[in-house]
Amino acid sequence: xxxxxxxxxxxxxxxxxxxxxxxxxxxxxxxxxxxxxxxxxxxxxxxxxxxxxxxxxxxxxxxxxxxxxxxxxxxxxxxxxxxxxxxxxxxxxxxxxxxxxxxxxxxxxxxxxxxxxxxxxxxxxxxxxxxxxxxxxxxxxxxxxxxxxxxxxxxxxxxxxxxxxxxxxxxxxxxxxxxxxxxxxxxxxxxxxxxxxxxxxxxxxxxxxxxxxxxxxxxxxxxxxxxxxxxxxxxxxxxxxxxxxxxxxxxxxxxxxxxxxxxxxxxxxxxxxxxxxxxxxxxxxxxxxxxxxxxxxxxxxxxxxxxxxxxxxxxxxxxx
Length: 320
Ligand code: ACO
Fold this sequence. Notes:
This protein is of the alpha/beta class. Helices cover 32% and strands 24% of the residues. The protein is built from ten helices and 13 strands.
């Protein structure tokens, strides 16, 4: 009898660069205030990479830890995928290939995906499909962002919102559904492409924040309700709700609409700002490092970003 193979989250890790930038620091370079940023977004500070640090450097540091925590060697990794909106190079080579080489991995597939802040959920979906098809045993997924390299520090609408960092995970396999990535839902609608983009004539993020805000709340609340219902899981069964960390008001609105106990909502946006594709793995690692996250805990993830893209996932943590 064939036993079913499920994909499984075997480890989690993150890396944050050293340079802390407070809202007060930003007051000195753009017409903003600590009060506005804190009230409208919840963000109190963020970390920026040094000039000579690229997304691949941040991703490499997180990936090393993720591989170690999964109790495998770098050479056991069958494929490397990186989600980023701030790649080392404009079109090629991919940031994933740079990270894989830094890890000592050669002759294995490596590629980037472009789904902005929904990147980590898209990565989970891709890794799950490859593992459950039986094609690969271990996939390294990384969200690595030097968002400061795509921010216009003259545009107060965007530059105060983002931060740099990286998160990584090893997706392996299991035969037990209670250790598995139970479900991943991803979606997109290019009709809203102009609300959040880096235009061809400028390297910087442009966003119609208020319109994105309204779409994010509505779409995420529906998406989260749908994935819970489809899998017959009640909000009270969730151990941790780990949303993309863009804005405290979006997170709280979705949490209220879905009736998730606020004590289960993981919040890191105050400390790190919006780290795009890195924000969810960084937030999972935050509770891992605080020793709150235990093997067998059921996690609910959601994300929303440029594209527009969005997604959610229900998964058991299977790390140690
Ligand atoms: N400091 C001071 N004032 C500011 C700043 C600032 N940094 N930025 C904007 N303002 C002003 C505006 O000019 C405007 O002034 P006006 O009323 O005189 O015109 C006022 O504040 C209100 O602006 P809004 O854009 O309406 O403010 P809002 O409450 O919507 O908050 C924010 C803006 C924080 C961007 C919010 O809309 C948001 O979080 N949007 C969603 C972001 C998101 O989730 N993005 C998806 C992920 S990101 C990705 O994929 C890359």
